[in-house]
Amino acid sequence: MLRTTKNMKDKYEKIQNCLFDLIPEKWEEIYLYASIVDRPGSVQTGEMYFYYLPKGILKKKPVNVYEVPKKFNINETEYLKIVDILYQTIKDLRQDFSDTEQDLWTNLTISIAHCRFKVEFSYDKISEEEYASYVRHVIWRYKYLHLGGEIKEERKILDKYFNENLIEKDKKEEYQAGMYLKTMNNVVGFDREIKAAQEKQEEQELKAAELEERKKRKRQERAKKEEEKRRKEEEKNKNQILKM
Prior knowledge:
It is a single chain. By secondary structure, the chain is an alpha+beta fold. It folds into 2 domains: 6-124 and 170-189, BH3703-like domains (Murine Class I Major Histocompatibility Complex, H2-DB, Chain A, domain 1), CATH 3.30.500; 206-244. The chain has helices at residues 6-22, 68-72, 76-99, 132-145, 152-163, 166-169, 191-243; strands at residues 27-39, 43-54, 63-64, 107-113, 116-122, 172-178. It has a 6-stranded antiparallel beta sheet, with helices on both faces. A hairpin with a 2-residue loop joins strand 4 (107-113) and strand 5 (116-122). The longest helix is centred in the C-terminal third of the chain and has 53 residues, at 191-243. The radius of gyration is 27 Å and the shape is elongated. The N and C termini lie far apart (98 Å).
């Protein structure tokens, strides 16, 4: 049974704020994976990746947050500072578990969806074998984002994972809390850059739509001319038959 302290709740709130700051558009859901492994000499290693689902009428593909700076023309150095703060906060959260003499998890998955903040703590051993990180990523993306499995290598990884029933073997605990998603300001101050990028994107989409409409009209006009030509040919052939 997890024990949650005020310090932990403060960390959860800080994690949420960092995630909100890192997403420069409206979104539906957020999913994050992070691992922390203790090494000899008080050294910690790990990895972190996270995605969000953009909000829209049509279903959109999850966006890898590390692609955001390029996609929205954001200063990558300032952006990655928030990523570092986010990962450090997750490490601090793990230290809170140590301070309260609770079992130390090795990795977690955070999800924010439908106004619910959820953290799944896992205590399984993190493998250092070659390609182990890739394997974990494939399984995690498939489980939480429903991505992958199309290529042979990923399919083999997923088949092995589900056949061995690894889900039941891992010890897991969970923290959940309701939340109110309020509008927040991005702490790196790239609001104007985001707005400009969004306006540019909208302008490009408008131009693309206008171009497609012009192409459509030209296709219709060409089809109409071809139809008229075909009718004239048929009429000409008909007249020739009658003369004979």
